[in-house]
Amino acid sequence: MDSIRVFAPATVANVACGFDIFGFAVDNPGDQITLTASDEPGVRIIDIIGDEGRLPREAGRNTASIAIQTYLKQINRLDVGLDVILHKQMPLGSGLGSSAASAVAGVFAANELLGRPLPIMKLLPFAMEGERIACGSAHADNVGPSLLGGFVVVRSYQPLDVIRIDTPANLFCTLVHPDIEVNTKDARFILKNEVSLKNTITQMGNVAGLIAGLMTPDYDLISRSLVDVIIEPVRSILIPEFNEAKQAALDNGALGCSISGSGPSMFALCRDAQTAEQVGAAMQQAFLSVGITSEAYVSQINKQGPKIL
Amino acid sequence: MDSIRVFAPATVANVACGFDIFGFAVDNPGDQITLTASDEPGVRIIDIIGDEGRLPREAGRNTASIAIQTYLKQINRLDVGLDVILHKQMPLGSGLGSSAASAVAGVFAANELLGRPLPIMKLLPFAMEGERIACGSAHADNVGPSLLGGFVVVRSYQPLDVIRIDTPANLFCTLVHPDIEVNTKDARFILKNEVSLKNTITQMGNVAGLIAGLMTPDYDLISRSLVDVIIEPVRSILIPEFNEAKQAALDNGALGCSISGSGPSMFALCRDAQTAEQVGAAMQQAFLSVGITSEAYVSQINKQGPKIL
Fold first, then answer.
1. Choice among B167, B184, B232, B275 that is catalytic
2. Which residue is closest to B213 within chain A, CA to CA?
3. Which GO terms describe its cellular component (chains A, B) (predicted)?
């Protein structure tokens, strides 16, 4: 095998109550990467398709190539040459884990191309290193679920402790990306450094309820627990029509609805595909009523993580 | 049936990471109550055994009788007469849910004596009313597990949302009550009203990890998650030798160890009975090394709640 093409899923981080600790992967959208072995050692970005020229082409600055370089260094294979073509298939800076998907696709593809020297779980730190370049910090709440699939808890960073949680077979996700931009660093900057003990207790109750609801499974409990009293009230002001779009989702049968990652995308969880489609249409309509166009994606929770195409 | 004797279990609230939201019941210790039907309407405390005269004998001020009175009023049976004998079988003000056990025993016994007009889940608000008298607020993290058995999450108070979590069959609890006193109101008073966002995130990760660990079950995950970065660092200063007793528990194989409720009792969770016994002895020895005597209790997690004797 001297060439490989890999898909890695988009991800929803935070998931209402679980700021910085929860994330899940979806089947759609996601990024694709093509790696081709080369005789010349090193990692090169040959082309990036679908980013409108916005992502860096230098291998030392691109999320995917940095993840691959870090991986090759770790397994002591700096003799390897890889040519990278990245197919961006989702909006950038959208809160859908775009950089995480590229990093995961890259490092997963390299590991497969080399005959899988490392088990998949061990690839996480390299994908996180790619995230560090994109976001300024090595978060795992997007790369974790993109790499492992499913719903993930990042329990701790020191040491890194990432736990995969079973989800109900029929859980569907609606993603709506309004065509506006929120800078991740801004979204983090406006958060307060202190939380009231009362809100901490409320949020912990919802965190516990969501995990129990997913594992039982208990859709009503999932629904009651998809509430964020800490982050959403602050960050939602950056998203025009947030309240209206959320209400539209709930009115149309969503179990819950909140900001995806640091926004501006929003996610909703639903009991079935039909409800998820209806929720997406209603949310898009809410944005459109103030002249904001959007893309909607509906899929099941992705349980597999990256896959070879 | 004109007389009934009921046992209700002691409980561990907070459970390290779950301040105000987690609690579980144990098989030992617990309180017993005897109710005898009387022709004279109203609830009377006939005797309290084992409290060294410290609990109020007036029916309008006693936790158990208030819970029963509130219950009788709700089911519109103020014609009923009940004579109460309370057998306190655990230390008062100890952080073991002593008042909750009395309230639960009382209201459960009354409901059984009257032919169970209400399902058990519906008794919770009346037991909480008893707690309000004892603690100044109607908390559910002790009465919840004492009434329902097992491990309980109080997800929300408005509306009341109490969720029962499955626990591993072989999970054992060690309780050690040092013979010192901590006032619950003091223990609450020293807490800060604000929590750093960083600590909130860490605590949420442990809350999620503990629920996932209990439900999977995964003892190592339970162990890693039994960490409290918010409450324990503040409240533990009220318990002499806390750090030494905790370290002794961990050194002897406990999965985790922290304050039970608002203290001064401490709890440890263990994989088996033998470890739990050993942990109890080591913790008692730590207290004894500075001249503090203590009682130790070892039992499985109580899965049944109150029972008729």
1. B184
2. A163
3. cytoplasm
